[in-house]
Amino acid sequence: MAREIKKIYAAITADIVGSRNVHNFPKERDRKLKPLAKQHLTLGFIVSEYAVTAWDEFEGLAKPDAIPGILLDLRRYFYPFALWIGVGIGTVTEPHRKPINVFAGGEAFERARKAIDEIKSGRNKSSRTTAFVSGNQDFDLVANTIYHLHDTLIQQISSKQWQTINAQLSFQSQEKTAKKLGLHTSSVSRTLRRGFYNQIEETRTTMGLLMKRYFANEPRRK
Protein backbone atom coordinates (compact mmCIF):
# COMPACT_ATOMS: atom_id res chain seq x y z
CA MET A 1 0.00 0.00 0.00
CA ALA A 2 1.39 3.41 -0.99
CA ARG A 3 1.83 5.84 1.87
CA GLU A 4 -0.49 8.82 2.20
CA ILE A 5 1.11 12.12 1.21
CA LYS A 6 0.43 14.81 3.80
CA LYS A 7 -0.98 18.06 2.47
CA ILE A 8 1.23 21.14 2.68
CA TYR A 9 -0.14 24.46 3.93
CA ALA A 10 1.22 27.96 4.46
CA ALA A 11 0.58 29.49 7.88
CA ILE A 12 0.72 33.25 8.32
CA THR A 13 1.47 35.10 11.53
CA ALA A 14 1.13 38.88 11.21
CA ASP A 15 1.95 41.57 13.75
CA ILE A 16 0.57 45.11 13.29
CA VAL A 17 3.38 47.51 14.17
CA GLY A 18 2.72 50.53 16.43
CA SER A 19 -0.79 49.45 17.40
CA ARG A 20 -0.58 51.03 20.85
CA ASN A 21 -0.47 54.45 19.20
CA VAL A 22 -3.70 53.91 17.23
CA HIS A 23 -6.93 55.27 18.71
CA ASN A 24 -9.61 52.57 19.05
CA PHE A 25 -7.22 50.05 17.57
CA PRO A 26 -9.39 46.88 17.78
CA LYS A 27 -12.11 48.58 15.72
CA GLU A 28 -9.57 49.78 13.13
CA ARG A 29 -7.94 46.34 12.99
CA ASP A 30 -11.26 44.54 12.42
CA ARG A 31 -12.44 47.13 9.89
CA LYS A 32 -9.52 46.11 7.68
CA LEU A 33 -9.20 42.43 8.53
CA LYS A 34 -12.79 41.14 8.37
CA PRO A 35 -13.64 42.25 4.80
CA LEU A 36 -10.28 40.97 3.59
CA ALA A 37 -10.90 37.59 5.25
CA LYS A 38 -14.24 37.27 3.44
CA GLN A 39 -12.62 38.19 0.14
CA HIS A 40 -9.80 35.66 0.58
CA LEU A 41 -12.29 32.95 1.57
CA THR A 42 -14.34 33.64 -1.56
CA LEU A 43 -11.20 33.43 -3.71
CA GLY A 44 -10.20 30.16 -2.03
CA PHE A 45 -6.92 31.61 -0.77
CA ILE A 46 -7.44 30.69 2.88
CA VAL A 47 -8.95 27.73 4.74
CA SER A 48 -10.96 29.79 7.25
CA GLU A 49 -11.21 33.38 8.45
CA TYR A 50 -8.15 35.04 9.94
CA ALA A 51 -8.04 34.63 13.70
CA VAL A 52 -6.94 37.40 16.05
CA THR A 53 -4.51 35.83 18.50
CA ALA A 54 -3.51 38.93 20.45
CA TRP A 55 -4.20 42.66 20.51
CA ASP A 56 -2.06 43.33 17.45
CA GLU A 57 -1.50 39.85 15.99
CA PHE A 58 -3.52 37.52 13.76
CA GLU A 59 -3.05 34.17 12.03
CA GLY A 60 -4.20 32.59 8.81
CA LEU A 61 -3.87 29.29 6.97
CA ALA A 62 -3.56 29.32 3.18
CA LYS A 63 -2.72 27.45 0.02
CA PRO A 64 1.03 27.96 -0.54
CA ASP A 65 0.68 29.41 -4.04
CA ALA A 66 -1.87 31.97 -2.76
CA ILE A 67 0.68 33.52 -0.39
CA PRO A 68 2.12 36.16 -2.79
CA GLY A 69 -1.36 37.54 -3.49
CA ILE A 70 -2.24 37.47 0.20
CA LEU A 71 0.94 39.32 1.14
CA LEU A 72 0.22 42.07 -1.37
CA ASP A 73 -3.37 42.40 -0.16
CA LEU A 74 -2.29 42.60 3.47
CA ARG A 75 0.19 45.37 2.64
CA ARG A 76 -2.22 47.47 0.61
CA TYR A 77 -5.40 46.98 2.65
CA PHE A 78 -3.69 47.64 5.97
CA TYR A 79 -1.83 50.73 4.75
CA PRO A 80 -0.84 53.02 6.46
CA PHE A 81 -0.32 50.37 9.16
CA ALA A 82 2.96 48.51 8.87
CA LEU A 83 2.97 44.73 9.29
CA TRP A 84 5.56 42.14 10.22
CA ILE A 85 4.55 38.93 8.47
CA GLY A 86 5.99 35.47 9.09
CA VAL A 87 5.15 32.66 6.67
CA GLY A 88 5.67 29.04 7.68
CA ILE A 89 5.21 26.19 5.22
CA GLY A 90 4.60 22.59 6.21
CA THR A 91 2.04 20.15 7.53
CA VAL A 92 -0.86 21.14 9.78
CA THR A 93 -3.02 19.27 12.28
CA GLU A 94 -6.78 19.93 12.23
CA PRO A 95 -6.56 22.51 9.40
CA HIS A 96 -10.33 22.81 8.87
CA ARG A 97 -11.49 23.21 12.47
CA LYS A 98 -12.38 26.72 13.58
CA PRO A 99 -11.00 28.93 14.97
CA ILE A 100 -7.57 27.97 13.69
CA ASN A 101 -5.76 29.56 16.63
CA VAL A 102 -7.55 27.09 18.95
CA PHE A 103 -7.56 23.87 16.95
CA ALA A 104 -4.89 24.04 14.23
CA GLY A 105 -1.21 23.39 14.87
CA GLY A 106 1.81 21.68 13.44
CA GLU A 107 5.03 22.55 11.69
CA ALA A 108 3.59 25.28 9.43
CA PHE A 109 2.49 27.34 12.45
CA GLU A 110 5.73 26.63 14.30
CA ARG A 111 7.70 27.84 11.29
CA ALA A 112 5.56 30.97 10.92
CA ARG A 113 6.31 31.85 14.55
CA LYS A 114 10.01 31.29 13.93
CA ALA A 115 9.84 33.51 10.83
CA ILE A 116 8.23 36.46 12.60
CA ASP A 117 10.61 36.11 15.54
CA GLU A 118 13.49 36.40 13.06
CA ILE A 119 12.02 39.66 11.75
CA LYS A 120 11.63 41.11 15.23
CA SER A 121 15.12 40.11 16.30
CA GLY A 122 16.66 41.88 13.29
CA ARG A 123 14.34 44.89 13.02
CA ASN A 124 17.03 47.43 13.98
CA LYS A 125 19.41 46.12 11.33
CA SER A 126 17.15 45.50 8.34
CA SER A 127 14.14 46.81 6.41
CA ARG A 128 12.80 43.25 6.11
CA THR A 129 9.16 42.91 7.15
CA THR A 130 8.38 39.52 5.56
CA ALA A 131 10.12 36.23 6.34
CA PHE A 132 9.69 32.64 5.16
CA VAL A 133 10.61 29.41 6.95
CA SER A 134 9.75 26.30 4.94
CA GLY A 135 12.26 23.62 5.88
CA ASN A 136 13.80 23.99 2.40
CA GLN A 137 16.97 26.07 2.59
CA ASP A 138 17.12 26.79 -1.14
CA PHE A 139 13.57 28.09 -1.26
CA ASP A 140 14.00 30.15 1.91
CA LEU A 141 17.15 31.80 0.55
CA VAL A 142 15.44 32.83 -2.69
CA ALA A 143 12.10 33.86 -1.13
CA ASN A 144 13.65 35.88 1.68
CA THR A 145 16.01 37.66 -0.69
CA ILE A 146 13.18 38.57 -3.08
CA TYR A 147 10.94 39.83 -0.29
CA HIS A 148 13.71 41.77 1.41
CA LEU A 149 14.12 43.77 -1.79
CA HIS A 150 10.34 43.92 -2.26
CA ASP A 151 9.76 45.19 1.30
CA THR A 152 12.37 47.92 0.81
CA LEU A 153 10.42 49.21 -2.21
CA ILE A 154 6.99 48.83 -0.57
CA GLN A 155 8.00 51.04 2.34
CA GLN A 156 8.64 53.94 -0.04
CA ILE A 157 5.13 53.93 -1.58
CA SER A 158 3.01 56.99 -0.76
CA SER A 159 -0.74 57.17 -0.10
CA LYS A 160 -1.37 58.65 -3.56
CA GLN A 161 0.68 55.91 -5.21
CA TRP A 162 -1.21 53.20 -3.31
CA GLN A 163 -4.49 54.72 -4.47
CA THR A 164 -3.37 54.46 -8.09
CA ILE A 165 -1.91 50.96 -7.61
CA ASN A 166 -5.14 49.73 -6.04
CA ALA A 167 -7.21 51.11 -8.89
CA GLN A 168 -4.87 49.57 -11.47
CA LEU A 169 -5.04 46.17 -9.74
CA SER A 170 -8.81 46.42 -9.86
CA PHE A 171 -9.25 47.62 -13.46
CA GLN A 172 -6.10 46.18 -15.10
CA SER A 173 -6.20 49.15 -17.50
CA GLN A 174 -4.42 52.47 -17.22
CA GLU A 175 -7.18 54.13 -19.23
CA LYS A 176 -9.90 52.89 -16.85
CA THR A 177 -7.74 53.76 -13.82
CA ALA A 178 -7.25 57.29 -15.15
CA LYS A 179 -10.99 57.71 -15.72
CA LYS A 180 -11.80 56.42 -12.22
CA LEU A 181 -9.31 58.78 -10.57
CA GLY A 182 -9.95 61.75 -12.85
CA LEU A 183 -6.38 61.80 -14.14
CA HIS A 184 -4.57 61.75 -17.46
CA THR A 185 -3.27 58.34 -18.54
CA SER A 186 0.28 59.74 -18.60
CA SER A 187 -0.09 60.74 -14.94
CA VAL A 188 -1.28 57.23 -14.02
CA SER A 189 1.64 55.67 -15.89
CA ARG A 190 4.11 57.93 -14.13
CA THR A 191 2.62 57.25 -10.69
CA LEU A 192 2.64 53.49 -11.24
CA ARG A 193 6.27 53.61 -12.31
CA ARG A 194 7.28 55.66 -9.27
CA GLY A 195 5.23 53.34 -7.06
CA PHE A 196 7.09 50.25 -8.34
CA TYR A 197 3.92 48.70 -9.77
CA ASN A 198 5.73 46.49 -12.27
CA GLN A 199 8.11 45.20 -9.60
CA ILE A 200 5.19 44.44 -7.27
CA GLU A 201 3.38 42.47 -9.97
CA GLU A 202 6.56 40.65 -11.00
CA THR A 203 7.15 39.61 -7.39
CA ARG A 204 3.60 38.30 -7.04
CA THR A 205 3.73 36.34 -10.30
CA THR A 206 7.24 34.93 -9.87
CA MET A 207 6.75 33.92 -6.25
CA GLY A 208 3.44 32.25 -7.09
CA LEU A 209 5.16 30.11 -9.72
CA LEU A 210 8.05 29.38 -7.37
CA MET A 211 5.75 28.24 -4.59
CA LYS A 212 3.84 25.98 -6.97
CA ARG A 213 7.11 24.41 -8.05
CA TYR A 214 8.30 23.74 -4.51
CA PHE A 215 5.06 23.05 -2.64
CA ALA A 216 2.42 21.78 -5.06
CA ASN A 217 0.23 19.29 -3.21
CA GLU A 218 0.06 15.92 -4.94
CA PRO A 219 -3.21 13.93 -4.87
CA ARG A 220 -3.60 11.77 -1.81
CA ARG A 221 -2.74 8.11 -2.39
CA LYS A 222 -4.83 5.32 -0.94
Structure notes:
The protein has about 220 residues and is of the alpha+beta class. It has a domain of about 140 residues: 2-Layer Sandwich (Alpha-Beta Plaits), CATH 3.30.70. About 55% of the residues lie in helices and about 15% in strands. The protein contains 9 helices and 5 strands. It has a 5-stranded mixed β-sheet. Helix 1 packs antiparallel against helix 2 and helix 7 packs across helix 8. The longest helix has 19 residues.
Q: What is the CATH C-level name of the domain at 9-144?
A: Alpha Beta
Task: State Rg.
Answer: 18 Å
Q: Tell me the helix content.
A: 40-55%
Based on Cα principal axes, name the global outline. Answer: globular
Q: How many β-strands, per DSSP?
A: 5
